[in-house]
Amino acid sequence: MFFLTAHRATRGPTFNDAPDRRFFRIWPMAALIFSVLVFLAGAVVAIQYKENFSIWQLQQKGTVATEKIRPPTSEVPVQPTEEPNVCEKKNQCRPSGSEPLPRGIVQDKSNFEMVQMESLGADPERNDDARPPKSLLAIPVGIKQKAVVDKLVAKFPAANFVVMLFHYDGVVDGWRDLKWSDDAIHVAVRDQTKWWFAKRFLHPDVVAEYEYIFLWDEDMEVDSFDPLEYLRIARREGLDISQPALDRRSQIHHRLTARARNVDVHRRFYKTSGHGRCYGNSTGPPCTGWVEMMVPVFSRAAWRCAWHMIQNDLIYAWGMDFKLGYCAQGDRRHNVGVVDSQYVLHRGIPTLGGGGGAAAPVSASAPTPAADRSAVRQRSSTELQVFNRRWNEAVEEDGCWTDPYPTTATNG
Question: Could you tell me the superkingdom of the organism this chain comes from (predicted)?
Fold first, then answer.
C-alpha cells in the first residue's frame, strides 16, 4: 500500500485513478463492518458457551443436592437386580441358624429311625421310597403295666409304626425281653407325665416325617382295634384330631367319646335323656369338635399346632382338651371326630400317685397312694385354672388374633 501511494503521487492524476480512489474510500468502512460482524459473532458464541456452562454447573449442583437430600435407603426402596432378589426370597425361608451353610446340605427335620447293625455296611443312600409312610406311637409306661403295654404295641405293625416309650418309673431293662423292645425308642425320666415327655421329646421338627402321632395312655385294651384300618378311616374322613371310641365298659367322662354302634365315625353328641349340657344348638366342646386326652391321634400338622399349646410347667394339660379344636386345620366340627368302628377299653388305672409306678419302700413318713392321687388331682385342677387364665390373657394381648369360634370357644 505504501508503494502504490508513492507511485501515484509521482505520476499525476489519470482517468483510471477514480476507481482506485473510490476503492480506498470504501475499504476502511468494509473492514470496520467486517470487524464488527466478527466481534458480534464471537460475542454470541461466548454467550452461548457461558449459558451452556452455567446450565451444566446447575445440573451438577442439582445432582449433588439430590444426593445430599436423598432419603435413607429404607424409605426409598432400591430396585435390586434379579439375582439378589431371588436369593433374598430363598433366604427368608431358611431355618434359623442355617444361614452360613449352603442350602442343599441343610437337614431341618429328624426322625427316630435307627440304623440296624446288619446294614452298617450298606449304601446309606439306598432308595427307601418304596417304604410305606410311618406313624408314631408314643406311650408313657411303668413296669407294672408291662403285659398290657406288650399287647397294645403288638397291635401296631413295625413296618408302619415307630414305637416310643416314656418310662415314668425309670425302669428300662425290664422291657428288654420283649421282641419289639430293641426296635423301640426308650426315654426314662422318673415321675413325669405324658405331656411333660411330649413337650420335650416330640418336637414337631423331630416327628415331622410321621403321618400321625398316637399319644396314648398305657392302660388300653385293644382287642377291637386295628391301627391300619383306623388310619384308613381317619384319612377318608379328613380327621386331623381324633380318637378311637371308648368301649362302654370303660371309664367314660364325656358321652361324646362313648362308642356309637353301626357307624364308622361320629363328631358330636346330643342329649337324649337325663341331665346333660349338649343340645341341638351346641357347637363347641365337649359336645362337638372334641376328644379326650387319654388316646388322642394327631395329624402331623395338627400336632405341630398342639405342641405349641402345651405349657412347659403345666404337666397334666388340663384345659387343653377344650382348645385342641383350634389345631384342627379347619372347622373343628368336621376335622375332629371319634372313630367308632375301631374302639378301645380304657381300664382307668392311675399311674402317678401310687398307681402304675414301680414299687418303692414304704416309710412311716411317706404319703399313702390315696393321698398322692388326691394331690395329683388337686394339681390338675389348679393347672386347669392357670391354663384358662393364660389363654384369656393371650387373647386380650394379641390384637392380630381372630377367634374362629367367638361364641362357642368355651361353652358346651
Answer: Eukaryota
Q: What is the pLDDT of residue 338?
A: 97
Backbone torsions φ then ψ of 326, nearest 5 degrees:
-65, -20
pLDDT value of residue 94: 75
Closest CA to 194 of 220, 168, 221, 222: 168
Domains in the chain with CATH codes:
131-271+279-352+368-392 (3.90.550.10)
In degrees and rounded to multiples of 5, residue 307 shows phi and psi of -60, -40
For residues 272 and 140, give the distance between their C-alpha atoms in angstroms, rounded to a whole number: 36
The x, y and z cell numbers of residue 218, run together, are 398305657
Q: How far apart are CA 147 and CA 347, in angstroms?
A: 13
- CA 62 remoteness from chain centre: 50
Give the residue among 337, 324, 214, 330 at the shortest CA–CA distance from 265: 337
DSSP state at residue 272 = -
Pairing of strands 336-346, 241-246: parallel
What is the band of 132 on the pLDDT scale with cuts at 50, 70, 90?
A: confident
Are 245 and 169 a contacting pair, CB within 8 Å? no
Identify the helix (H) or strand (E) that includes residue 10: helix 2-11
**Angstrom distance (rounded) from CA 262 to CA 260:** 7
Three cell numbers, residue 267: 363328631
d(CA 46, CA 390): 83
d(CA 368, CA 144): 18
In the chain, what percentage of residues exceed pLDDT 90? 52
Alpha-carbon dihedral of residues 271, 276, 277, 278, nearest 10 degrees? -10
- Concatenating the DSSP letter of every residue in 55-74 gives HHHHHHHHHHHHHHHPPPTT
Q: Which three cell numbers stand for residue 141?
A: 409306661
pLDDT category of residue 9 using cuts at 50, 70 and 90: very low
Q: What digits encode the pLDDT tens for the residues 388-402?
A: 999 999 999 999 999
C-alpha 392: how far from chain center: 23
